[in-house]
TrEMBL record:
One of its GO terms (biological process) is polysaccharide biosynthetic process. InterPro entries: 6-PGluconate_DH-like_C_sf (IPR008927), NAD(P)-bd_dom_sf (IPR036291), UDP-Glc/GDP-Man (IPR017476), UDP-Glc/GDP-Man_DH_C (IPR014027), UDP-Glc/GDP-Man_DH_C_sf (IPR036220), UDP-Glc/GDP-Man_DH_dimer (IPR014026), UDP-Glc/GDP-Man_DH_N (IPR001732), UDPglc_DH_bac (IPR028357). This is UDP-glucose 6-dehydrogenase. Pathway: Nucleotide-sugar biosynthesis; UDP-alpha-D-glucuronate biosynthesis; UDP-alpha-D-glucuronate from UDP-alpha-D-glucose: step 1/1. Keywords: NAD, Oxidoreductase. It comes from Deinococcus terrestris. Belongs to the UDP-glucose/GDP-mannose dehydrogenase family.
């Protein structure tokens, strides 16, 4: 299953965050020799010790299995020996919503002096504004004595992995998009051959899904590949906001959004996924990429009202939770509110644009006292959210004890499995705001029996 010596290539991956580490693990598993490079020396030291700086299921074990094929460095000189160089650095939003290309520029300028006279492919996996591939090529031309268009190829290969399921998404992708000059795309296709043909042995922790065959391969121009990533994220964001908009009306007319989503999702043209109503999207990508696309439109004098509406609906959802709490508790001042889940979604410790952040901030501003729990992201919250005021709960039960309400802000599996009827008895009021719709209806019915607030449903489900 491992590549023969001849087809195994030397790869450098620039940036060892969520995408970079996933890429290192994937390519090493396919049989390539991979060096992960980061300017963050502490991160590289950690990786050298065998510690993985992020929480991603299966990643540490896959990297450990491939340890003999994987190296870590802060030194761009390794680029000289590389057949393929991946750029996986961050592209956070800048002040006007357009992505900040500081790290992309840093990577290109770091790579350039070390390009050699062998043929090398530079693959961009970061999500970047349309035209960035050309911009990177110009930087390489300007800063490299060896750059030669007939030997050096810039290819866009957007990343579609989701945090929490990164390895499965990388090993068994729906599609691989590669944009650029045909020779560059052909070289990347060769690197990915075991992935495209699915000839590698699936790792024990991440088995191949039964129905999975092989990825679709989409070859495009550089610009189309860059656009595909933005458009894909924008469409998914739109789907969630659409579900949330319909959910708001469902509540008013007495329909059940979960039934409605099932009904519309059963249409093959629509599909059931990304129709979950709730607290809305968060994370490092949807907010940034929808804003990025709008700001690209603005640059060309082209308004994008559908996307803007999707963003507005998304942030309105965060306020809906507060309004529901107010409806039941009247004033929030002095109330104890338990928030279950800090990470923007389950199975990750990523806190970027997590709805829980806004929620805690608003609750504190309204003088409620917040007790928060997350099974994984708590230490990270301590570091990254020092400006927020809340009490840490070691487990969900302590969070709920004597609380006036609990908000389920992240759909961690362990929250589904809690003994809710027993926990409700420990609360001051049995009010659940299930902002992720994790509790199924039969259970809710059971919880309502514990209600002490009369006929108006104490177990409120925020859609
Ligand atoms: P991240 O912030 O987790 O990691 C980026 C890493 O790049 C950091 O370790 C940083 O130290 C390093 N870095 C910055 N400048 C560098 C330089 N000049 N040289 C070497 N290393 C440098 O980011 P991420 O979440 O992995 O995202 C990376 C890119 O992939 C972004 O463009 C993002 O939009 C895109 N993306 C992310 C996801 C996701 O789920 N996180 C999914 C698809 C695409």
């Amino acid at each position: 299953a491992v590549l023969t010596h001849e087809s195994s290539q030397q790869v450098v991956v620039i940036g060892t965050g969520y995408v970079g580490l996933g890429t290192v693990a994937l390519l090493a598993h396919l049989g390539h020799r991979v060096t992960g490079l980061d300017i963050d020396a502490a991160k590289i030291e950690q990786l050298r010790r065998g510690e993985v700086p992020i929480y991603e299921p299966g990643l540490a074990s896959l990297l450990a299995q491939q340890a003999d094929r994987v190296h870590w460095t802060t030194d761009y000189a390794v680029v000289a020996q590389a057949d393929v160089i991946f750029i996986c650095v961050g592209t956070p939003p800048g002040p006007g919503g357009a992505p900040d290309l500081e790290f992309i520029t840093g990577a290109a300028v770091g790579i350039a002096p070390h390009l050699s006279d062998r043929s090398q492919v530079l693959v961009n996996k970061s999500t970047v504004p349309i035209g960035t591939g050309d911009f990177v090529q110009r930087l390489l031309e300007e800063h490299s004595p060896h750059f030669d268009e007939t030997r050096h190829f810039v290819v866009s290969n957007p990343e579609f992995l989701r945090e929490g399921t990164a390895l499965g998404d990388s090993l068994y992708p729906d599609r691989i998009v590669m944009g650029g000059a045909p020779e560059g795309v052909a070289r990347l296709t060769a690197l990915y051959a075991p992935l495209i043909e699915q000839t590698f042995a699936p790792p024990a922790e991440t088995p191949r899904p039964e129905s999975y065959l092989r990825p679709g391969v989409v070859g495009t121009t550089l610009q189309s590949a860059e656009m595909i990533k933005y458009a894909a994220n924008a469409f998914l964001a739109l789907k969630i906001s659409f579900a949330n908009e319909i959910a708001g009306l469902c509540e008013r007319v007495g329909a059940d959004i979960q039934e409605v989503a099932t009904g519309i999702g059963a249409d093959a043209r629509i599909g059931p996924r990304f129709l979950q109503a709730g607290l809305g999207w968060g994370g490092s990508c949807f907010g940034k990429d929808t804003q990025g696309l709008i700001s690209a439109g603005r640059e060309y004098g082209y308004p994008m009202p559908i996307l803007q509406a999707a963003i507005d609906v998304n942030y309105r959802q965060r306020q809906v939770v507060i309004e529901k709490l107010q409806r039941h508790l009247k004033t929030l001042k002095g109330k104890r509110i338990a928030v279950l889940g800090m990470a923007f979604k389950p199975n990750t410790d990523d806190l970027r644009d997590a709805p829980a952040h806004d929620l805690i901030q608003r609750l504190h501003a309204m003088e409620a006292s917040v007790v928060a729990h997350d099974p994984v992201a708590m230490p990270r919250a301590r570091r990254e959210w020092p400006h927020l005021t809340y009490t840490e709960a070691p487990d969900p039960a302590s969070a709920l004890r004597r609380a006036d309400a609990v908000v389920i802000a992240t759909e961690w599996d362990e929250y589904r499995g809690l003994d809710w009827p027993a926990l409700l008895l420990t609360m001051r009021r049995p009010l659940i705001i299930d902002a992720r719709n994790v509790l199924r209806s039969p259970l809710l019915a059971q919880i309502e029996q514990f209600g002490r607030e009369g006929p108006s449903s104490p177990a409120e489900t925020v859609h």
